[in-house]
Amino acid sequence: MDDRGVGWIAAIIIGGLAGWIASAVMKSDTGMLANIVIGIIGAAVASFLFGLLGVSFGGWFGYLIAGVVGACLLIWGVRAVRR
After folding, report:
1. Straight-line distance from the first to the last Cα atom of the chain, in angstroms, rounded to the nearest whole number
2. φ, ψ for residue 19 (rounded to 5)?
């Protein structure tokens, strides 16, 4: 995850927002800490996957988009494994 433009505190805030948006989109009932973790890990996963496709995001807005997409993928993956 390349977050040169986003510091750690901003990553936590944006990750929490991304996790919250993803949990609302995916209709998942998670807490604040889980939203932060899902958002940050989701951003890392999405950045990696988009990097394979040659797409890169930068700054706060890019980190938020990557976090939401990645968090949705994580929630979907966990649901698929649980079934």
Report:
1. 30
2. -65, -40
Half-sphere exposure of 57 (CA within 13 A, CB side): 23
Q: In terms of DSSP H, where are the helices of the chain?
A: 8-25, 32-52, 59-82
Please indicate, yes or no, if residue 31 is contained in any of the structural domains. Answer: yes
Give the position of tokens 């991304």.
18
Residues 52-69: tens digit of each pLDDT: 988 877 778 888 888 899
pTM: 0.80
Q: Which 8-state DSSP code applies to residue 58? A: -
Domain enclosing residue 43, as ranges = 8-82
